[in-house]
Predict the structure.
Amino acid sequence: MADVLDHGGEMLRVTGLHAFYGESHILHGIDFGVRRGELVTLLGRNGAGRTTTLKAILGLTGRRAGSVMVNGREAIQLPTHKIAHLGVGWCPEERAIFSSLNVEENLNLPPKVRSDGMSLEEIYELFPNLWERRKSQGTRLSGGEQQMLAMARILRTGARLLLLDEITEGLAPVIVKKIGDSVRLLKARGYTIVLVEQNFRFAAGIADRHYVIEHGQVVDAVSAEELSASADRLNKYLGV
Amino acid sequence: MDIPLQAVLSQAMLGLNNGAFYALLSLGLAVIFGMLNVVNFAHGAFYMLGAFAALLGFDYLGRFLGDESLRMSFWAALILGPLIVGSIGVVVEKTMLQRLYKVDHLYGLLLTFGLALIFEGVFTNYFNVSGEPYNGKPEILEGAFDLGFMFFPKYRLFAIVLSLAVCFGVWYLIERTRLGSYLRAGTENPDVTRAFGIDVPMLRTLTYFLGVALAGLAGVVAAPIYSVSPKMGSDLIIIVFAVVVIGGMGSIMGAIVTGLALGLLEGVVKVFYPPLANTVIFIVMALVLLWRPAGLFGKEA
């Protein structure tokens, strides 16, 4: 875990993060870091606290404690809407496409947090399906199109740290491949990405590093190079 | 039945006039319910406050400041009334309502109902239940137009046109502008909207301001027609709630169209069978609830 100690050029550093929903204590001191341009995954069983980790970074849980440094700025005390303006884009597990907005309104909804986001033209080039359906009600799209829309709308804002939650869940293999291509493209463009992923094979192909979460704590970290040597260990964590 | 068309048309016009008030008030209620999840029982009280703002500004402001000739004109009241009422709303939202969003509807309902009773009680103490007439109707709106089938008071026509314009403006704001897309998104999924960097608590305050300012505007416009009394809001608000339920809670267009249509219906029924006029809206409400529980324009859950 030597790389974890390197704090230089970090886009995200989470230290001792605790989070609660009402009385239930969900995260018990999460620690991990992501350097600029890196893609890391959060692996673990259902209910281990991966989605909650993303929500806690955004201040969407109940009470939280510890430290969340985004791009060198402490975010633990900030209200949710200010955290987005540090350059964080979130693609929630349930996708959360707005049914009262059409596709283009969905794309235009998140305010720009930096000036260098993608233009609508670039986004439509990346996801041509969205161009064809731009006047449709957001929730009329297919599952795959909704997933693309959920990712596309945070690219417009100029956010450089993307928190992507289960972006392949319930999608056909051909769509998963397409989503994988766009994630690779985003990484190539220098985005920093935290991926919560159930599909380990999908994650293994694109990540620099994997963090394993169990019972609200990071219990292990495996880099891409160590992956084949650590397969048994990971299988045990994930129970596959 | 032998009822002259002329009588039907005149009652329809008067009904439309009432409908304009229903539309303004139910629009505010619908906007507030959609965004804040609060059934705003204080809506009638804010309407009453709007009317009193006009009355006090016209008849009392000068006396209070020691210069009898100083009056807030009707036109000034049209702007200032909604702003004053809206500001009171902001205080209510920031200090009290804000704490209730996470709990059951019932708490917001009880709080706003209590506020309505307090506002009504205070004004009843100073002005009596019967209230006072408003004397500030501008001269240019005196008299009547000849519509062919009836002479229709200019002021009532003004009231209809103004509220239609305002209703359409609010619809446009919510359905067609960027701010409106924030409001719609915040209504649908506040957490994700916040995570995108939109200040949802601020939007809620703004929404409450807008909603009660609409009630305040309706109150100012009502002042020259109905007598200004502490109870004027609670008499009207029951009908307005029926309108919102028929139109569909939280539907903007539903509130506007239903408000106008039911005012019209009420007017026309008055010609055919007057005793039914006060009840017909509630009969319609019962039927609509049986047929479409989410309301005419509401989305089925």
User: Anything to note?
Assistant: Chain B touches chain A through 18 residues (CB under 8 Å). The CA atoms of residues 24 and 214 of chain B lie 6 Å apart.
